[in-house]
Design goal:
Length: 310
């Protein structure tokens, strides 16, 4: 009988206190095959502490993707010196975030992973019109276009020693939550889409597909897949909200939606792209091998912040 103890494979998860990174931590945290290093800008912050309380077997790594070499050094100090896997997702919207900063961070994570002989790299991008079209379609939306360039960098620079998978989620269901911001966005979305359907995915499913890629990297090597669990018009979205919560999708004065488009041109470009081109993940094909993909109804029951109808 062998007494050899197999050490768990170390996976560095960026954006661990955010929507997608948090979903990946949740999907992997209880898998004894892996040691999770959860990256956060502030290890002493409430979000990091909350994550550690939920998953006490992970390790928190304080780091900034603006300095990828320093981040990898901090990760190696926190866990196994050999980082086996990386889940990479960049902040693409918000204060101080630019097209250039996202591309720079995304490319730097790839370069540092190659330098550190990472074996499995999973990158979360965005769906841009189908699995094949996404390879060539930058779109006019800056925070979609940035991911196109990061994908190209990964495909062009990773040799066979590093397996890689690209996940391309569509709109995240978790971006829908009670409150005035969602009401204004819903109004702008309704006005832009009309009766054009739009695809959505739960972050829980992004986490599950990242887990699939880490558990069976050979099967997922050099694959890019669009992720979606639901396709619906705004009217159907509103009807399902009413059925599940008792209230339809809240909307407000059109002038507020117009103000949103004027104040943030990137949102206007994105809404127009949703209406003219839109996401094209193959939901039917995904469901052939995955019955767990959450529909909007199931997401409302399981994960949303909306209050269920009594």
């Amino acid at each position: 009988m062998s007494n050899t103890i197999t050490r768990p494979k170390t996976i560095l998860v960026t954006g661990a206190t955010g929507k997608q990174g948090g979903a990946v931590v949740e999907a992997l945290a209880n898998n004894e095959e892996f040691q999770i290093l959860a990256v956060t800008r502030n290890a002493s912050g409430a979000a990091a502490k909350g994550l550690l309380e939920r998953f006490p077997n992970i390790k928190i790594v304080e780091g900034n993707m603006d300095d990828a070499p320093k981040l990898f050094e901090a990760a190696k100090d926190a866990g196994n010196k050999n980082i086996w896997g990386v889940f990479s997702v960049q902040v693409s919207e918000g204060k101080g975030v630019t097209f250039d900063s996202e591309v720079r961070q995304g490319k730097a994570m790839i370069d540092e992973a190659i330098k550190n002989k990472v074996e499995t790299f999973v990158y979360s991008s965005v769906e841009r019109g189908g699995d094949e079209k996404s390879w060539t379609n930058q779109t006019p939306v800056d925070h979609f276009k940035s991911k196109y360039f990061i994908e190209q960098h990964l495909r062009d620079n990773a040799d066979k020693s590093m397996k890689w998978t690209i996940l391309r989620p569509v709109a995240l269901m978790e971006n829908m939550k009670p409150g005035f911001e969602t009401t204004v966005f819903f109004t702008a979305l309704k006005n832009a889409l009309g009766q054009t359907p739009m695809q959505w995915v739960a972050t829980r499913d992004v986490g599950r597909y990242a887990e699939k890629a880490f558990v069976k990297p050979e099967r997922w090597d050099r694959k890019a897949v669009g992720l979606a669990g639901e396709e619906m018009t705004f009217s159907q979205l509103s009807d399902q909200l009413k059925s599940s919560t008792g209230s339809p999708a809240g909307t407000t004065y059109g002038i507020l939606a117009s103000a949103l488009r004027w104040a943030i041109p990137e949102i206007a470009r994105m809404l127009d792209w949703f209406a003219s081109d839109g996401y094209r993940a193959d939901i039917g094909k995904l469901r052939e091998s995955d019955s767990e993909l959450l529909t909007f109804k199931k997401w409302l029951e399981k994960d949303s912040q909306f209050t269920a109808k009594a």
